[in-house]
Design brief:
By secondary structure, the chain is an all-alpha fold. The chain has 18 helices and six strands. The strands form two sheets. It has a four-stranded mixed beta sheet with strand order 1-3-6-2. It has a two-stranded antiparallel ribbon with strand order 4-5. The chain is flat and about 185 Å long.
Length: 1188
């Protein structure tokens, strides 16, 4: 009984020691939370009320209850820590927001002040820029006027040069009889002749080469035919000789065969012993073959036995290797058991070290944070002290500036009144000068408008005259070009190509009076186009379109058909043709349409194609032509005066434009009338031009007089404007100066008030910073003590781990060496796994030893079988040798009998064999001779056929060469004639080409001069307009500058800017207002955040205290439980002991500590708790031993 009481006393003492060490630490760390005496007394009373458990069940219930209370307290502390962290973040953010919004307010104010200053500076610069631009515009106007005069002179010279060049061109044109078409035709003819010579030369060369090849091939064929004939003769002779040889060899063979048969027959009939000897040889040979077959089978048996032995030896080696490997695996597994046991010991030591390391890490972190917070607080104090000094200096300076600003305001007000009087006088003088200038400006502008219109009239008249004059000059040439010129005028490339490239283009004579391409005949064609569409419309069909391409086709076709009286198919179109005077109404359509429609309606199926073309609903395009060529027709020798041709087509993919017939007729008649009336139109245009030029010169003289008056008036206005501007500038400057001085007084007074408030705020901040620094220093000292204690415990744990690690390393080296020799490379998971692997390895070794014994026996059995097979093979080989000796003996006996009888059978047999071989050879030679004869005959036939072909080819090649030679001679002659014609034609037209080039150059020069004059005129107009615009811009810039002088940021903070030109500054003012409002809001948010943080800190400290108490109760309950719980695995370290569990709990609690920068946490408490728990474990262990 006394022994039990003594143990209880010792346990209670240890428990009190733990509780006191746990509870004393937080009381030292917490600064702002006084101990709750009532709560402590309640907890102490509750702990006293709990009885020490009397058995394992009560200890388990107490332990579970303690765990639940601790878990609840831990959760409460964790939640409180999270809320405190959140409140700290909110507070930090609020502080940052105050700093940010304060800086933003300062920046917004600076930006607004800069914007107001920039507005005034920009307005002033704009005035200067406008004055510079006006001066530049006036200089440009003078330069443009001078340039225009120069361009007018250049145009006059260019016009004279153009007229001279035109006169020279007209003179040479009338003297030149050769046209460019003639040159083109000569060039084409010469080029064609040249190409023809080249072609004929190539053809001759090709024919010569062909002839040469034919000669060579013909000679070769003749030689081959002769050789083939000789070869055939030789082959026939050889065949005859071979046939003779075969006949002779056959006779000799037959004779030898007969002699042999007679000898054998004689021998067998006269000696039965010989016949028996022959049979004995045959029997011996059969017996020999049987013996060889048996020997072969025995040899196969030996091979199979050798293979089986090799297999059994391999199985024995494999079994032996498995024994070796299994032995190595057993050695490895035994060492693995030792290693895993050592690792468990090491793991237990490392677990203890981990708890200590966590405690040190947390203690160091808390110490570092506390030190950082102290350093930060010290820096904040220094900043606060500097702000106090700065605020005092600014307050003193602001007080002296107030009176200085008031004195300056009085002086500015006096200067403003004097400037205002001076400005009124200048305004009156400027108004009079501007009225006179405006009247003159209106007059000048009106005259300029009239001049501009007059210049446009002159330019238009000049252009009209130039075009009319040019057309009058070119009319004769264009009329002569007929429809070709019209197609060129329209830009119809397809139509031009149709006339140029038609198959029968030589039947068309461009522009000639009777030709379909003459303008008169083309004009006459228009009525027939309209007639066709009228007929289609009557049929209920759509009208056909027309374009230049199909008109050109119709013209080309009708010209050639006038000569051939037939459709020539030059183009892929439908076509109607007619010849004659056609005096009946409807012209050619009377026969095409009226008569054929009647025939069609009467059932005709032929002779109605013209009508069917006209009414074909699918046709889209048409073209019509008319010419006056005559042609003799038929036996009556009738003369047909006219030819009519119309073409039709379904589609067109070319580039020429399409028109209705009405549109096409209008375009053509405009072209036709312009050419026919060209001279008259040119005279009318010239008279109109002279009239317009006289009116323009009169207006220019009037303008010069008015501009002189305006220049004088403008100078006067400029002087008055300068005076007004100067007076207005002085007045505005005076007003602005007064406003600035008034603002300066207000600003100085406001600044003095602000500086007084700032000084008081700085002094308050300094006092708060000093208090914070004192608190932070005290916390640093507490954290340093906790860190030193945790480090000492960690050093002890590390020493234990180091010793255990050394043991593991040594065993690991031994294990790795054994593993390298083992086949099992899998490492055990733990000690139990290692023990299981050892048992498996030993079982595998036993199995391997048994398998090796079986393999050795298998090798022995295979060796015995091989020995037996080899013995049987030797016996079989001996039997074969005996049989071979028997065959030799039998043959020897047979030959001896034959020799005793004196028979010549052997000689006869040898002779027979020789004759048979000779016969076979002769037959083979005969076969070869026959084949050679056939081949020679075939070669001869082929050679004779080839010779005949080559002779025919030679004759043809010789004829062709003679023809090509003559054709080349003719082509060379044609080329010489064409070259002479081209040279003469080019020489004749060269003067006209030179004159045309000179005229074209003169036209271009005149056109460039006119363009330059137009540009110069536009430049004068633009320059004068620019002067007016720049004058107006100067007025606007001066007005904006005066309004800019009135701008004030202070006034804008109270009243919105209504001037549209400067209303954009309201955005800067609004930004400043918003920044000030945001700063004030941030200050309010900071105050709220500080209150929330203080509340959260109080809740966290209370939760932390409660968790410490529940954790101490848990340790006590665990110790009581361990007293009753059975001890397991006493022979090895148990990493799941109550002490270890408490250390894990300590680690979890440490990890859940609030990270707020407040170092009053449970780290030091938990480190002490871990050590105390070890002490409790030691006491309980001693108690158990004493009880035993």
């Amino acid at each position: 009984m006394k022994k039990t009481n003594l143990i209880k006393v010792k346990t209670a003492v240890a428990t009190v020691a733990v509780a006191s060490s746990v509870l004393a630490q937080p009381a030292m760390m917490i600064q702002a939370a006084p101990e709750d005496t009532g709560a402590k007394e309640s907890k102490d009373s509750e702990a006293d009320a709990k009885k020490e458990p009397a058995n394992l069940q009560e200890a388990t219930e107490n332990l579970n209850a303690a765990k639940q209370e601790n878990t609840k307290a831990e959760t409460a502390e964790k939640e409180a820590a999270e809320k405190l962290d959140s409140a700290k973040t909110t507070l930090d953010n609020a502080n940052k927001k105050v700093d940010t919004t304060t800086e933003a307010e300062s920046n917004a104010k600076q930006e607004a002040e800069n914007a107001f200053a920039d507005a005034k500076t920009t307005a002033e610069k704009n005035v200067q820029d406008a004055e510079d631009a006006l001066a530049s515009a006036k200089a440009e106007s003078e330069s443009a006027t001078t340039d225009k005069t120069s361009k007018e002179s250049e145009l006059a010279k260019a016009s004279a040069s153009e007229a001279s060049a035109k006169e020279n061109l007209d003179k040479i044109s009338s003297e030149t009889t050769v046209t460019e078409d003639d040159v083109k035709a000569a060039q084409e003819k010469a080029e064609t002749a040249k190409k023809n010579v080249e072609e004929k030369t190539a053809e001759k060369e090709k024919a010569a080469e062909k002839l040469g090849n034919a000669v060579v091939e013909k000679n070769t064929a003749e030689q081959n035919a002769e050789a083939a004939t000789a070869a055939l003769d030789n082959a026939k002779n050889a065949k005859q000789e071979a046939e003779n040889a075969v006949n002779n060899a056959q006779a000799a063979y037959d004779q030898a065969k007969k002699a042999y048969n007679e000898a054998v027959d004689t021998l067998e009939k006269g000696s039965p012993e010989y016949k028996e000897a022959v049979q004995k040889v045959a029997d011996a040979r059969a017996s020999l073959e049987d013996a060889k077959l048996q020997a072969k089978k025995k040899a196969e048996d030996v091979t199979n036995a050798e293979t089986n032995l090799a297999q059994k030896q391999g199985e024995r080696a494999t079994a032996e290797l498995k024994v070796t490997n299994a032995t190595a695996n057993v050695n490895k597994a035994e060492k693995a058991v030792e290693l895993e046991a050592a690792k468990e010991t090491l793991a237990s030591a490392k677990a203890e070290q981990t708890v200590k390391e966590l405690a040190v890490e947390q203690a160091k972190e808390d110490y570092d944070k506390a030190s950082t917070n102290a350093a930060t607080a010290d820096a904040e104090l220094k900043k606060a002290e500097q702000k106090v000094a700065d605020a005092q200096a600014e307050f003193d300076s602001a007080g002296g500036n107030v009176q200085t600003a008031k004195d300056a305001l009085v002086q500015a007000q006096n200067e403003e009144q004097a400037a205002k009087d001076k400005k009124a006088l200048a305004d009156a003088e400027l108004s009079d000068a501007q009225k006179n200038q405006n009247d003159l400006t209106a007059s000048v502008e009106e005259i300029k408008k009239q001049i501009t219109q007059a210049e446009q009239d002159v330019t238009s008249a000049q252009t009209t005259y130039n075009e009319a004059k040019q057309l009058a000059d070119d009319a004769a040439v264009l009329i002569a070009k007929g429809s070709y010129g019209f197609f060129e005028y329209n830009g119809s490339a397809d139509a031009v190509q149709a006339l140029n490239n038609a198959t029968y283009a030589n039947y068309t004579h461009i522009g000639e009076e009777k030709d379909a391409t003459s303008l008169e005949n083309m004009k006459a064609s228009m009525q027939w186009l309209k007639k066709c569409n009228e007929l289609r419309k009557a049929e209920g069909l759509g009208e056909l379109y027309v374009n230049d391409y199909f008109m050109a086709i119709a013209q080309s076709n009708s010209n050639v058909s006038a000569k051939t009286m037939n459709h020539m198919g030059q183009f892929n179109v439908g076509e109607n043709l007619a010849w004659g005077n056609h005096n009946k109404e409807g012209g050619p359509f009377y026969s095409w349409y009226t008569e054929e429609k009647r025939d069609k309606e009467n059932g005709a199926t032929e002779g109605v194609g013209h009508y069917e073309n006209i009414v074909d609903p699918d046709y889209v395009y048409t073209g019509f032509a008319f010419n006056q060529y005559c042609e003799q027709w038929g036996t009556s020798k009738r003369e047909w005066t006219y030819t009519y041709g119309q073409v039709f087509q379904y589609a067109y993919t070319g580039t020429d434009d399409k028109y209705t017939v009405s549109e096409y007729e209008n375009i053509f008649m405009d072209y036709y009338n312009d050419l026919m009336n060209a001279s008259k139109n040119a005279e009318t245009a010239k008279a109109s031009l002279e009239e317009k030029e006289n009116a323009l010169n009169a207006l220019k003289a009037e303008l010069t007089a008015k501009e002189a008056e305006l220049t004088s008036a403008t100078s006067t206005v400029a002087e008055k404007e300068a005076a007004v501007a100067q007076a207005e500038q002085e007045y505005n400057e005076a007003k602005a100066n007064t406003a600035q001085k008034e603002t300066a007084v207000e600003d100085a007074e406001n600044l003095l008030s602000e500086k007084e408030q700032a000084l008081a705020s700085a002094q308050s901040a300094k006092e708060n910073a000093q208090n914070v620094l004192n608190e932070k220093k005290e916390i640093v000292a507490q954290m340093e003590s906790a860190l030193n204690s945790a480090q000492q415990e960690l050093d002890t744990a590390k020493a234990t781990v180091s010793s255990a690690q050394a043991t593991v390393d040594q065993l690991q080296q031994e294990y790795d060496a054994l593993k390298a020799e083992a086949t099992d490379q899998e490492d055990p998971v733990d000690l139990t796994d290692a023990q299981n692997k050892l048992s498996n390895a030993k079982a595998a070794l036993d199995s391997a030893n048994s398998a090796y014994s079986n393999a050795v026996q298998g090798v022995n059995d295979a060796q015995t079988a091989l020995n037996n097979a080899q013995s049987e093979l030797e016996s079989a080989n001996a039997e074969v040798q005996a049989k071979e000796a028997a065959v030799a003996q039998a043959e020897q006996e047979r030959d001896a009998i034959a020799e005793q009888l004196g028979s010549d059978v052997n000689d006869k047999q040898k002779l027979l064999a020789e004759k048979e071989e000779a016969l076979n050879n002769a037959k083979a030679e005969l076969q070869e001779a026959q084949e050679a004869e056939e081949a020679a005959q075939q070669a001869k036939d082929t050679a004779e056929s080839t010779l005949a072909d080559k002779t025919q080819e030679y004759d043809a090649a010789q004829t062709e060469y003679q023809q090509k030679d003559q054709a080349l001679t003719d082509a060379v002659s044609d080329q010489e004639n064409a070259d002479q014609d081209l040279s003469a034609t080019e020489s004749a037209i060269q003067p006209l080409r030179d004159a045309q080039t000179a005229y074209t150059t003169a036209q271009k020069t005149k056109s460039n001069a006119q363009t330059a004059l137009d540009t110069a005129t536009s430049r004068v107009t633009e320059a004068e307009q620019s002067v007016q615009e720049k004058e107006q811009a100067l007025i606007v810039a001066k007005d904006l500058f005066e309004r800019a002088k009135l701008l004030s940021l202070d006034d804008a903070m109270e009243n919105e800017i209504t001037d549209d030109a400067y209303s954009y500054l309201n955005a800067k003012v609004e930004a400043l207002k918003n920044a000030s409002a945001e700063k004030n809001a941030a200050i309010q948010e900071l105050a709220v955040a500080q209150v929330q943080y203080d509340d959260a800190a109080k809740v966290y400290e209370d939760a932390k205290k409660e968790h410490i108490v529940t954790l101490a109760n848990l340790v006590i309950a665990q110790a009581a439980y361990d007293k009753f719980a059975p001890k397991k695995n006493e022979d090895k370290a148990d990493v799941n002991t109550p002490a270890t569990a408490a250390k894990k709990e300590a680690k979890n609690t440490s990890e859940n500590t609030a990270k707020t920068g407040d170092t009053a946490n449970t780290t030091g408490v938990l480190a002490m708790m871990a050590g105390s728990l070890v002490a409790i474990g030691a006491v309980l262990t001693g108690k158990k031993k004493r009880e035993e």
